[in-house]
Amino acid sequence: MRIAFLVAPEGVEQVELTEPWKAAADAGHEPVLVSTESGKVQGFNHLDKADTFEVDAVVGEADAGSFGGLVLPGGVANPDFLRMDEKAVGFVKDFFDQGRPVAAICHAPWVLVEADRVAGRRVAS
Q1: Are the CB atoms for 87 and 117 separated by under 8 Å?
Q2: b/e string for 87-117 if b means 16 or more Cβ within 10 A?
Q3: For the chain, is the Cβ count within 10 Å smaller at the N or the C terminus?
Q4: Annotated catalytic sites, by residue?
Q5: How far apart are CA 108 and CA 23, in angstroms?
Q6: Sign of the CA dihedral with 13 first, then 67, 23, and 102 last
Q7: pTM assigned to the model
Q8: What is the rounded CA–CA span in Å between residue 76 and residue 107?
């Protein structure tokens, strides 16, 4: 199963990307890095730059229906960048509308709030 990991070009907390990515791969899934721009994304360890990661797909060209689930890693800035991008918010909405699972880590639930998909749901943090 393909699992989308949606991140902004900057601001993603690296461990919140790499550990769920590893867990998905270890479970036999295909993690796919989706971002709002092509190229590379910059990981962070808190406020310090960490590693960069190659983008596999751009959110405006990716189809939620081609993924079995969505992971939204956190970081202080990453969710804010995502929630200001209409295509990223639309991508998140598509997962909910199609009944596909969504995992939001740390600050990432703000993207769910922006997508207006939290009301009436039980969420855990």
Answers
A1: no
A2: ebbebbbbbbeeebebebbbbbbbbbebbeb
A3: C
A4: 107
A5: 18
A6: positive
A7: 0.96
A8: 6
Phi and psi at residue 20, to the nearest 5°: -65, -35
pLDDT in tens, 78-105: 999 999 999 999 999 999 999 999 999 9
Write down the residue that tokens 């998905």 correspond to.
24
pLDDT at position 122, please?
Answer: 84
- Please, are residues 109 and 46 in contact by the beta-carbon 8 Å criterion? no
Residue 94 and residue 59 in contact, taking contact as beta carbons nearer than 8 Å? no
> Longest C-alpha distance within the chain, in Å?
37
Give me 115's structure tokens.
């997508």
Structure tokens at 99: 């009944």
